[in-house]
């Protein structure tokens, strides 16, 4: 089992190990233990360790003291005296200024329920001798050992030990699904719902931006058609070619200058396709800013959901294998 644990640990490190990252208005925790949180301010970014024994209030005071930013605040429905361990089970917000907020998304390591028995934790530390093991393996073993220690009498015979092993496995089988998967699955569903709403908002903004770009091109075409008709009337009806020839030259030069400016400004050729794309992008940026839409959050959530699904899958596979080992 230990060899399999080390294999899954190396696999988990390749796939999921990361530092705390800031992407737009979203922050992911590191996968180290204890996890780290990167707190972005306008002048710098700071990394802080989230110790599970700390309270939310103590963490806030630590950040304010080390950064000299009195506006920092953790936005959560939990009371200020709540422990960081409770905070890290679901998404929460941090406020770095009076107007700037960031969503913080927990990792699988912090969402799974951990055994409350101090004796179990000390026993696991002794077994693993400080070696790093996948959080999923550690949680599975911890819950089983918790049940085993509770079932063993102070002075146990061989039959008592066998009975305790069977009882611990039975209790573990009844409780492990809730303990391991409840919080991660709830967070996964919440992230999927949040992404769905963002994609709907994005589709609406893209649709309105495309309509605006088409409208601008139609207006530009209408202006060109009106100008063509007016120039034709002036050439063939009002003044004649001799009078209008210098004016047409100036108009052609004007459009050449507009095309040159467009290329220098946007690094694109001055043509219908690129103009439509430019109008759509500018309108998209205006609407996104007006409605508070975070385009980077879409990419962040897509990656977060994909990784969380894979982590839950790895945890589920390990749990099934571990339960099979216990029964053997």
UniProtKB/TrEMBL annotation:
UniProt-annotated location(s): Mitochondrion inner membrane
Keyword Heme on entry: no
Domain Calcium uniporter protein C-terminal: 157-297
GO molecular function: calcium channel activity; uniporter activity
Principal place of residence: mitochondrion
Superkingdom of origin: Eukaryota
Reactions the enzyme catalyzes: Ca(2+)(in) = Ca(2+)(out)
Annotated InterPro entries: MCU_C (IPR006769), MCU_fam (IPR039055)
Keyword Nucleotide-binding carried by entry: no
Protein name per Swiss-Prot or TrEMBL: Calcium uniporter protein C-terminal domain-containing protein
UniProt membrane topology term: Multi-pass membrane protein
A Pfam family it matches: MCU
GO biological process, one term: mitochondrial calcium ion homeostasis
UniProt record similarity statement: Belongs to the MCU (TC 1.A.77) family.
Keyword vocabulary terms for this entry: Calcium, Calcium channel, Calcium transport, Coiled coil, Ion channel, Ion transport, Membrane, Mitochondrion, Mitochondrion inner membrane, Transmembrane, Transmembrane helix, Transport
Gene Ontology CC: one annotated term: uniplex complex
Stretches assigned to coiled coil: 298-325
Bilayer-spanning residue ranges: 217-241, 247-266
